[in-house]
Amino acid sequence: MTQAKEGDVVKVHYTGKLDNGEVFDTSDNREPLSFTIGKNEVIPGFEDGVKGLKVGQSKTVKIESDQAYGPRREEMLYKVDKDKFPPDVELKIGDSFKIGQEQGNPTIVSITEISENEVILDANHPLAGKDLTFDIQLIEIG
User: Fold this and answer.
1) Residues 27, 13: Cα–Cα separation, whole Å
2) Which of 4, 24, 36, 101 is in the most buried spot, having the most CB atoms within 10 Å?
3) Dist. CA 6–CA 37, nearest whole Å
4) DSSP type of residue 66
């Protein structure tokens, strides 16, 4: 039976969990995730976890943060004056939205703090700095 390898288009079902067991994402009740191994379409540790699997095989992989979404970086926190936001917008901790960048690519940021005059925006990926565990089942090699 063929094993998944570099260049293969694969379909997998997965469940991603944090160290405390909280599920942060799953393909349950959805179509399986499809990607090409070696094209950097998923995080490196996930891709490595699929390599070598045969169709129908399952595996649990623990992915350190550096092979997932990388470390949390303080330079990705931005202080913004409250008066830069439209006055009719209600700001809440945890809200996320897109902002434009000089390079033209929008970035998703989350509000992490609100003070009297400033808002702290975090452009880190929500899973940055976290070790992840994935239960993966290889469904198809295309």
Assistant:
1) 6
2) 4
3) 5
4) G
In this predicted model, which residue has the larger pLDDT, 107 or 45? 45
- Find tokens 């379909």 and name the residue: 11
pLDDT tens-digit map of 94-138: 999 888 766 667 888 999 999 999 999 999 999 999 999 999 999
Question: What pLDDT shows up at residue 102?
Answer: 67
Write out the two tokens for 81: 């004056």
* Token digits of residue 14: 């997965």
Domain annotation for the chain: domains and CATH numbers: 9-70+127-141 (3.10.50.40), 74-122 (2.40.10.330)
Long-range contact pairs involving 14-17 (C-beta distance under 8 Å, separation at least 24): 14/46, 14/134, 14/135, 14/136, 14/137, 15/134, 15/135, 16/132, 16/133, 16/134, 17/132, 17/133, 17/134, 17/135
